[in-house]
Amino acid sequence: MLPQWIIEKKRDGQTLTEEEIRFFIDAYAKEKLPDYQMAAMAMAIFIRGMNPKEIAILTDAMMRSGDLINTSSIKKPKVDKHSTGGIGDKVSLILAPLVAACGLAVPMISGRGLGITGGTLDKLESIPGYRTNLSDAELIRVIKKIGCSIIGQTKQLAPADKKLYALRDVTGTVASIPLITASIMCKKLAEGLDGLLLDVKCGKGAFMRTQKDARALALTMVRVGNAMGKRMAAVITDMNQTLGNTAGNVLEVVESIETLQNRGPKDLTELTLVSAEEMLILGRITKSRATARAMAEKALADGSAFRIFRKMVELQGGDVRTIDDPSRLAQAKFKVPMPAPASGFVSLADAESVGKACVVLGAGRTRTDEAVDPAVGISHILHIGDAVTKGAPLLVIHANDKKRLAAAQELLKGAFKIAKSKPKTPKLILERINGETIGK
Ligand code: URA
User: Does domain 79-156+164-324+429-433 have CATH number 2.60.200.40?
Assistant: First the structure.
Protein backbone atom coordinates (compact mmCIF):
# COMPACT_ATOMS: atom_id res chain seq x y z
CA MET A 1 0.00 0.00 0.00
CA LEU A 2 1.52 3.33 -1.05
CA PRO A 3 0.32 6.63 0.49
CA GLN A 4 -0.20 8.20 -2.95
CA TRP A 5 -2.66 5.44 -3.91
CA ILE A 6 -4.74 6.24 -0.82
CA ILE A 7 -4.60 9.98 -1.58
CA GLU A 8 -5.71 9.31 -5.18
CA LYS A 9 -8.61 7.19 -3.95
CA LYS A 10 -9.94 9.97 -1.72
CA ARG A 11 -9.20 12.58 -4.40
CA ASP A 12 -11.50 10.63 -6.72
CA GLY A 13 -14.27 10.58 -4.11
CA GLN A 14 -14.03 6.93 -3.07
CA THR A 15 -14.52 5.54 0.42
CA LEU A 16 -11.33 4.60 2.29
CA THR A 17 -11.05 1.30 4.11
CA GLU A 18 -10.22 0.98 7.80
CA GLU A 19 -6.80 -0.43 6.89
CA GLU A 20 -6.02 2.52 4.61
CA ILE A 21 -7.02 5.17 7.17
CA ARG A 22 -5.11 3.49 10.01
CA PHE A 23 -2.02 2.98 7.81
CA PHE A 24 -2.02 6.68 6.85
CA ILE A 25 -2.46 8.11 10.36
CA ASP A 26 -0.08 5.65 11.97
CA ALA A 27 2.65 6.46 9.42
CA TYR A 28 2.07 10.22 9.87
CA ALA A 29 2.24 10.03 13.68
CA LYS A 30 5.46 7.99 13.47
CA GLU A 31 7.08 10.54 11.13
CA LYS A 32 7.14 7.95 8.31
CA LEU A 33 4.88 10.02 6.07
CA PRO A 34 5.82 13.58 5.04
CA ASP A 35 3.69 16.66 5.67
CA TYR A 36 3.11 17.16 1.92
CA GLN A 37 1.32 13.82 1.61
CA MET A 38 -0.74 14.47 4.73
CA ALA A 39 -1.58 17.97 3.39
CA ALA A 40 -2.74 16.44 0.08
CA MET A 41 -4.88 13.95 1.98
CA ALA A 42 -6.36 16.72 4.19
CA MET A 43 -7.32 18.66 1.06
CA ALA A 44 -8.82 15.55 -0.55
CA ILE A 45 -10.91 14.97 2.61
CA PHE A 46 -11.82 18.68 2.70
CA ILE A 47 -13.18 18.56 -0.86
CA ARG A 48 -14.61 15.01 -1.02
CA GLY A 49 -15.73 14.55 2.60
CA MET A 50 -15.94 11.29 4.52
CA ASN A 51 -18.84 9.06 5.48
CA PRO A 52 -19.64 8.55 9.23
CA LYS A 53 -17.79 5.21 9.32
CA GLU A 54 -14.64 6.72 7.81
CA ILE A 55 -14.80 9.63 10.30
CA ALA A 56 -15.18 7.24 13.24
CA ILE A 57 -12.12 5.24 12.07
CA LEU A 58 -10.12 8.45 11.52
CA THR A 59 -11.07 9.61 15.04
CA ASP A 60 -10.11 6.27 16.57
CA ALA A 61 -6.80 6.13 14.66
CA MET A 62 -5.91 9.66 15.81
CA MET A 63 -6.91 8.87 19.38
CA ARG A 64 -4.70 5.75 19.35
CA SER A 65 -1.70 7.67 17.98
CA GLY A 66 -0.97 8.51 21.63
CA ASP A 67 -1.72 7.41 25.17
CA LEU A 68 -5.22 6.88 26.49
CA ILE A 69 -5.95 7.95 30.05
CA ASN A 70 -6.93 4.95 32.12
CA THR A 71 -9.84 6.21 34.19
CA SER A 72 -11.28 2.76 34.87
CA SER A 73 -10.55 3.00 38.60
CA ILE A 74 -13.04 5.90 38.83
CA LYS A 75 -16.36 4.27 39.59
CA LYS A 76 -18.66 7.24 39.03
CA PRO A 77 -20.05 7.90 35.53
CA LYS A 78 -17.46 9.92 33.57
CA VAL A 79 -18.94 12.70 31.47
CA ASP A 80 -17.28 15.76 29.94
CA LYS A 81 -18.27 18.78 27.89
CA HIS A 82 -16.55 20.29 24.86
CA SER A 83 -17.28 23.75 23.54
CA THR A 84 -16.20 24.75 20.05
CA GLY A 85 -15.21 28.08 21.59
CA GLY A 86 -16.50 31.59 21.87
CA ILE A 87 -16.14 34.99 23.49
CA GLY A 88 -16.66 35.05 27.25
CA ASP A 89 -17.31 31.29 27.32
CA LYS A 90 -16.31 30.40 30.88
CA VAL A 91 -18.93 27.64 31.29
CA SER A 92 -16.36 24.85 31.89
CA LEU A 93 -15.07 26.51 35.07
CA ILE A 94 -18.55 26.47 36.58
CA LEU A 95 -19.98 23.32 34.99
CA ALA A 96 -17.27 20.79 35.96
CA PRO A 97 -17.60 21.43 39.74
CA LEU A 98 -21.37 21.81 39.41
CA VAL A 99 -21.96 18.37 37.88
CA ALA A 100 -19.31 16.87 40.17
CA ALA A 101 -21.44 18.13 43.07
CA CYS A 102 -24.35 16.18 41.52
CA GLY A 103 -22.44 12.88 41.36
CA LEU A 104 -20.54 12.82 38.05
CA ALA A 105 -16.81 12.44 37.49
CA VAL A 106 -15.38 15.00 35.05
CA PRO A 107 -11.85 14.43 33.71
CA MET A 108 -11.73 17.66 31.71
CA ILE A 109 -8.82 18.22 29.35
CA SER A 110 -9.01 21.75 28.06
CA GLY A 111 -7.18 23.96 25.62
CA ARG A 112 -5.70 27.42 25.42
CA GLY A 113 -7.23 30.31 23.58
CA LEU A 114 -6.22 30.89 19.98
CA GLY A 115 -7.46 33.68 17.76
CA ILE A 116 -10.43 35.55 19.20
CA THR A 117 -11.80 32.71 21.33
CA GLY A 118 -10.57 32.33 24.90
CA GLY A 119 -9.28 29.11 26.45
CA THR A 120 -10.16 27.48 29.76
CA LEU A 121 -6.49 26.86 30.61
CA ASP A 122 -5.52 30.52 30.25
CA LYS A 123 -8.38 31.45 32.55
CA LEU A 124 -7.42 28.92 35.23
CA GLU A 125 -3.72 29.81 34.98
CA SER A 126 -4.59 33.38 35.94
CA ILE A 127 -5.12 31.94 39.45
CA PRO A 128 -1.58 32.09 40.94
CA GLY A 129 -0.08 28.62 41.35
CA TYR A 130 -2.88 26.66 39.60
CA ARG A 131 -1.25 23.69 37.85
CA THR A 132 -2.74 22.52 34.56
CA ASN A 133 0.00 19.94 33.91
CA LEU A 134 -1.03 17.14 36.29
CA SER A 135 0.17 13.60 35.61
CA ASP A 136 -2.52 10.99 34.90
CA ALA A 137 -2.11 9.66 38.48
CA GLU A 138 -2.56 13.16 39.95
CA LEU A 139 -5.59 13.78 37.71
CA ILE A 140 -7.24 10.60 38.93
CA ARG A 141 -6.40 11.38 42.57
CA VAL A 142 -8.07 14.82 42.31
CA ILE A 143 -11.16 13.36 40.60
CA LYS A 144 -11.48 10.65 43.25
CA LYS A 145 -11.37 13.31 45.97
CA ILE A 146 -13.76 15.91 44.54
CA GLY A 147 -15.27 14.57 41.29
CA CYS A 148 -13.54 16.84 38.76
CA SER A 149 -10.25 18.16 37.53
CA ILE A 150 -9.48 20.58 34.72
CA ILE A 151 -6.04 20.18 33.14
CA GLY A 152 -4.21 20.70 29.82
CA GLN A 153 -3.35 18.39 26.96
CA THR A 154 -0.17 16.37 27.51
CA LYS A 155 2.36 15.68 24.74
CA GLN A 156 1.29 12.04 24.69
CA LEU A 157 -2.38 12.79 24.03
CA ALA A 158 -3.32 12.34 20.35
CA PRO A 159 0.03 13.49 18.85
CA ALA A 160 -1.28 12.87 15.29
CA ASP A 161 -3.85 15.61 15.92
CA LYS A 162 -1.24 18.04 17.18
CA LYS A 163 0.72 17.68 13.91
CA LEU A 164 -2.32 17.59 11.66
CA TYR A 165 -3.98 20.62 13.29
CA ALA A 166 -0.84 22.74 12.73
CA LEU A 167 -0.70 21.52 9.12
CA ARG A 168 -4.40 22.26 8.50
CA ASP A 169 -3.91 25.75 9.86
CA VAL A 170 -1.48 26.58 7.02
CA THR A 171 -3.04 24.56 4.19
CA GLY A 172 -6.60 25.94 4.11
CA THR A 173 -8.09 22.72 5.51
CA VAL A 174 -9.39 23.78 8.95
CA ALA A 175 -13.10 24.19 8.11
CA SER A 176 -13.81 20.55 7.22
CA ILE A 177 -16.45 18.70 9.23
CA PRO A 178 -14.68 15.28 9.10
CA LEU A 179 -11.36 16.84 10.12
CA ILE A 180 -12.84 19.04 12.88
CA THR A 181 -14.83 16.08 14.21
CA ALA A 182 -11.84 13.74 14.35
CA SER A 183 -9.65 16.47 15.87
CA ILE A 184 -12.06 17.36 18.69
CA MET A 185 -13.30 13.86 19.42
CA CYS A 186 -9.92 12.06 19.41
CA LYS A 187 -8.74 14.22 22.32
CA LYS A 188 -11.96 14.06 24.32
CA LEU A 189 -12.48 10.32 23.88
CA ALA A 190 -8.91 9.62 25.08
CA GLU A 191 -10.25 10.63 28.53
CA GLY A 192 -12.05 7.28 28.84
CA LEU A 193 -15.53 8.83 29.01
CA ASP A 194 -19.01 7.31 29.24
CA GLY A 195 -20.63 10.39 27.78
CA LEU A 196 -19.81 13.71 26.16
CA LEU A 197 -21.80 16.91 25.73
CA LEU A 198 -20.89 19.22 22.85
CA ASP A 199 -21.62 22.93 22.88
CA VAL A 200 -21.42 23.93 19.24
CA LYS A 201 -21.41 27.70 18.98
CA CYS A 202 -22.60 29.64 15.98
CA GLY A 203 -22.51 33.26 14.99
CA LYS A 204 -20.01 36.03 14.47
CA GLY A 205 -17.86 35.07 17.46
CA ALA A 206 -17.60 31.38 16.48
CA PHE A 207 -15.97 29.40 13.69
CA MET A 208 -19.34 28.01 12.60
CA ARG A 209 -21.11 31.13 11.36
CA THR A 210 -24.58 29.67 10.69
CA GLN A 211 -26.94 27.44 12.67
CA LYS A 212 -27.11 25.08 9.69
CA ASP A 213 -23.31 24.55 9.70
CA ALA A 214 -23.28 24.21 13.49
CA ARG A 215 -26.05 21.58 13.29
CA ALA A 216 -24.17 19.62 10.62
CA LEU A 217 -21.02 19.58 12.78
CA ALA A 218 -22.95 18.69 15.95
CA LEU A 219 -24.82 15.82 14.27
CA THR A 220 -21.61 14.41 12.79
CA MET A 221 -19.85 14.51 16.16
CA VAL A 222 -22.84 12.94 17.93
CA ARG A 223 -23.01 10.11 15.37
CA VAL A 224 -19.27 9.44 15.50
CA GLY A 225 -19.33 9.38 19.31
CA ASN A 226 -22.30 6.99 19.26
CA ALA A 227 -20.49 4.77 16.74
CA MET A 228 -17.55 4.66 19.16
CA GLY A 229 -19.83 3.47 21.97
CA LYS A 230 -20.24 6.81 23.79
CA ARG A 231 -23.42 8.48 24.94
CA MET A 232 -23.59 11.86 23.24
CA ALA A 233 -25.63 15.05 23.31
CA ALA A 234 -25.15 18.51 21.84
CA VAL A 235 -26.46 22.01 22.29
CA ILE A 236 -26.24 24.62 19.57
CA THR A 237 -25.83 28.04 21.13
CA ASP A 238 -25.66 31.62 19.95
CA MET A 239 -22.28 33.33 19.78
CA ASN A 240 -23.22 36.64 18.18
CA GLN A 241 -22.83 38.38 21.52
CA THR A 242 -20.50 37.78 24.48
CA LEU A 243 -21.52 35.08 26.97
CA GLY A 244 -21.86 36.71 30.38
CA ASN A 245 -20.61 40.21 31.05
CA THR A 246 -16.86 39.69 30.81
CA ALA A 247 -14.13 38.56 28.41
CA GLY A 248 -10.51 38.24 29.57
CA ASN A 249 -8.86 35.77 31.89
CA VAL A 250 -9.03 37.14 35.46
CA LEU A 251 -12.30 38.91 34.69
CA GLU A 252 -13.81 35.59 33.60
CA VAL A 253 -12.50 33.76 36.68
CA VAL A 254 -14.17 36.39 38.87
CA GLU A 255 -17.45 36.04 36.95
CA SER A 256 -17.22 32.24 37.25
CA ILE A 257 -16.80 32.53 41.03
CA GLU A 258 -19.84 34.83 41.18
CA THR A 259 -21.86 32.35 39.10
CA LEU A 260 -20.75 29.46 41.32
CA GLN A 261 -22.02 31.57 44.22
CA ASN A 262 -25.37 31.83 42.43
CA ARG A 263 -25.08 35.53 41.62
CA GLY A 264 -23.86 35.29 38.04
CA PRO A 265 -25.39 36.76 34.88
CA LYS A 266 -28.60 35.19 33.62
CA ASP A 267 -27.31 33.96 30.22
CA LEU A 268 -24.20 32.31 31.65
CA THR A 269 -26.15 30.69 34.49
CA GLU A 270 -28.81 29.41 32.09
CA LEU A 271 -26.33 27.84 29.65
CA THR A 272 -24.48 26.22 32.56
CA LEU A 273 -27.72 24.78 33.97
CA VAL A 274 -28.89 23.49 30.56
CA SER A 275 -25.47 21.88 30.03
CA ALA A 276 -25.67 20.32 33.50
CA GLU A 277 -29.11 18.86 32.68
CA GLU A 278 -27.72 17.17 29.56
CA MET A 279 -24.63 15.87 31.36
CA LEU A 280 -26.60 14.45 34.31
CA ILE A 281 -28.86 12.60 31.87
CA LEU A 282 -25.84 11.35 29.87
CA GLY A 283 -24.30 10.11 33.13
CA ARG A 284 -27.60 8.40 34.05
CA ILE A 285 -27.76 10.23 37.37
CA THR A 286 -31.41 10.74 36.45
CA LYS A 287 -33.69 10.23 33.45
CA SER A 288 -35.77 13.29 34.27
CA ARG A 289 -34.81 16.69 32.93
CA ALA A 290 -36.76 18.39 35.73
CA THR A 291 -34.87 16.41 38.38
CA ALA A 292 -31.54 17.18 36.68
CA ARG A 293 -32.42 20.87 36.62
CA ALA A 294 -33.41 20.86 40.30
CA MET A 295 -30.18 19.07 41.29
CA ALA A 296 -28.04 21.56 39.38
CA GLU A 297 -29.91 24.57 40.76
CA LYS A 298 -29.51 23.21 44.29
CA ALA A 299 -25.73 22.71 43.83
CA LEU A 300 -25.43 26.39 42.91
CA ALA A 301 -27.74 27.59 45.66
CA ASP A 302 -26.29 25.52 48.54
CA GLY A 303 -22.64 26.35 47.75
CA SER A 304 -21.60 22.75 47.04
CA ALA A 305 -20.48 23.53 43.45
CA PHE A 306 -18.46 26.53 44.68
CA ARG A 307 -16.81 24.45 47.42
CA ILE A 308 -15.70 21.85 44.86
CA PHE A 309 -14.24 24.57 42.61
CA ARG A 310 -12.35 26.04 45.57
CA LYS A 311 -11.04 22.59 46.54
CA MET A 312 -9.99 21.88 42.92
CA VAL A 313 -7.96 25.10 42.91
CA GLU A 314 -6.37 24.10 46.24
CA LEU A 315 -5.57 20.51 45.17
CA GLN A 316 -4.01 21.78 41.93
CA GLY A 317 -1.69 24.19 43.73
CA GLY A 318 -3.67 27.41 43.28
CA ASP A 319 -3.77 30.18 45.87
CA VAL A 320 -7.27 29.86 47.37
CA ARG A 321 -6.97 33.28 49.02
CA THR A 322 -7.65 34.67 45.53
CA ILE A 323 -10.86 32.64 45.34
CA ASP A 324 -12.02 33.88 48.73
CA ASP A 325 -11.05 37.44 47.82
CA PRO A 326 -10.90 37.84 44.00
CA SER A 327 -9.58 41.41 44.37
CA ARG A 328 -6.23 39.67 45.06
CA LEU A 329 -6.14 38.47 41.42
CA ALA A 330 -4.16 40.50 38.86
CA GLN A 331 -5.72 43.88 38.09
CA ALA A 332 -5.14 46.06 35.03
CA LYS A 333 -3.70 49.58 35.37
CA PHE A 334 -6.40 51.32 33.35
CA LYS A 335 -10.16 50.73 33.59
CA VAL A 336 -11.85 52.85 30.97
CA PRO A 337 -15.61 52.85 30.29
CA MET A 338 -16.96 53.15 26.75
CA PRO A 339 -19.94 55.52 26.91
CA ALA A 340 -23.22 54.96 25.06
CA PRO A 341 -23.64 57.56 22.27
CA ALA A 342 -27.41 57.81 22.88
CA SER A 343 -30.18 56.64 25.19
CA GLY A 344 -32.23 53.62 24.17
CA PHE A 345 -31.74 49.86 23.92
CA VAL A 346 -28.70 47.89 22.78
CA SER A 347 -29.51 46.41 19.36
CA LEU A 348 -26.03 45.14 18.43
CA ALA A 349 -23.31 43.87 20.82
CA ASP A 350 -20.87 42.24 18.45
CA ALA A 351 -18.91 39.35 20.03
CA GLU A 352 -16.32 39.25 17.25
CA SER A 353 -15.23 42.86 17.95
CA VAL A 354 -15.10 42.14 21.70
CA GLY A 355 -12.93 39.08 20.97
CA LYS A 356 -10.61 41.05 18.70
CA ALA A 357 -10.33 43.86 21.25
CA CYS A 358 -9.35 41.30 23.90
CA VAL A 359 -6.61 39.96 21.64
CA VAL A 360 -5.14 43.45 21.04
CA LEU A 361 -5.30 44.15 24.78
CA GLY A 362 -3.17 41.02 25.32
CA ALA A 363 -5.83 38.69 26.79
CA GLY A 364 -5.62 36.32 23.80
CA ARG A 365 -2.94 35.12 21.44
CA THR A 366 -2.41 34.95 17.70
CA ARG A 367 0.40 32.36 17.90
CA THR A 368 0.41 29.27 20.11
CA ASP A 369 3.70 30.27 21.80
CA GLU A 370 2.57 33.75 22.90
CA ALA A 371 1.99 34.60 26.58
CA VAL A 372 -1.27 36.21 27.67
CA ASP A 373 -1.81 39.06 30.12
CA PRO A 374 -4.20 37.70 32.78
CA ALA A 375 -5.47 41.10 33.97
CA VAL A 376 -6.68 42.69 30.74
CA GLY A 377 -10.01 42.31 28.98
CA ILE A 378 -13.49 43.78 28.98
CA SER A 379 -16.14 43.82 31.72
CA HIS A 380 -19.68 45.15 32.25
CA ILE A 381 -20.56 44.23 28.66
CA LEU A 382 -24.18 45.02 27.82
CA HIS A 383 -26.37 42.65 25.79
CA ILE A 384 -28.98 43.04 23.08
CA GLY A 385 -32.18 44.41 24.66
CA ASP A 386 -30.45 46.11 27.64
CA ALA A 387 -31.61 49.66 28.34
CA VAL A 388 -28.91 52.33 28.45
CA THR A 389 -28.80 56.09 28.94
CA LYS A 390 -26.54 58.41 26.96
CA GLY A 391 -23.03 58.50 28.49
CA ALA A 392 -23.50 55.39 30.67
CA PRO A 393 -21.00 52.59 29.98
CA LEU A 394 -21.65 49.99 27.27
CA LEU A 395 -18.63 48.17 28.66
CA VAL A 396 -15.39 48.80 30.59
CA ILE A 397 -11.98 48.17 29.01
CA HIS A 398 -9.22 46.84 31.30
CA ALA A 399 -5.78 47.65 29.83
CA ASN A 400 -2.16 47.71 30.93
CA ASP A 401 -0.88 49.76 28.01
CA LYS A 402 -2.21 53.00 26.52
CA LYS A 403 -1.47 52.06 22.89
CA ARG A 404 -3.31 48.77 23.24
CA LEU A 405 -6.16 50.59 24.96
CA ALA A 406 -6.49 52.95 21.99
CA ALA A 407 -6.42 50.02 19.53
CA ALA A 408 -9.17 48.25 21.49
CA GLN A 409 -11.28 51.44 21.59
CA GLU A 410 -10.92 51.72 17.81
CA LEU A 411 -12.00 48.10 17.30
CA LEU A 412 -15.04 48.53 19.54
CA LYS A 413 -16.30 51.72 17.86
CA GLY A 414 -18.88 50.12 15.59
CA ALA A 415 -19.50 47.07 17.77
CA PHE A 416 -22.51 48.41 19.68
CA LYS A 417 -25.65 50.01 18.29
CA ILE A 418 -28.46 51.72 20.17
CA ALA A 419 -32.09 51.60 18.99
CA LYS A 420 -35.01 53.69 20.19
CA SER A 421 -37.32 50.72 20.74
CA LYS A 422 -36.48 47.49 22.53
CA PRO A 423 -35.37 44.76 20.08
CA LYS A 424 -36.34 41.14 20.55
CA THR A 425 -33.90 39.35 22.85
CA PRO A 426 -32.09 36.73 20.74
CA LYS A 427 -32.31 33.11 21.84
CA LEU A 428 -29.19 31.72 23.51
CA ILE A 429 -29.95 27.99 23.31
CA LEU A 430 -30.90 27.43 19.68
CA GLU A 431 -31.20 23.65 19.59
CA ARG A 432 -30.67 20.54 21.65
CA ILE A 433 -29.54 17.31 20.03
CA ASN A 434 -29.94 14.37 22.40
CA GLY A 435 -31.63 11.01 22.84
CA GLU A 436 -35.03 12.72 22.99
CA THR A 437 -34.56 14.76 19.86
CA ILE A 438 -32.85 12.18 17.65
CA GLY A 439 -34.66 9.19 19.05
CA LYS A 440 -31.74 7.24 20.55
N1 URA B 1 -10.76 22.46 17.81
C2 URA B 1 -9.95 21.39 17.62
O3 URA B 1 -9.41 20.84 18.55
N4 URA B 1 -9.80 20.96 16.35
C5 URA B 1 -10.39 21.52 15.28
O6 URA B 1 -10.20 21.06 14.17
C7 URA B 1 -11.21 22.64 15.50
C8 URA B 1 -11.38 23.08 16.79
Answer: no
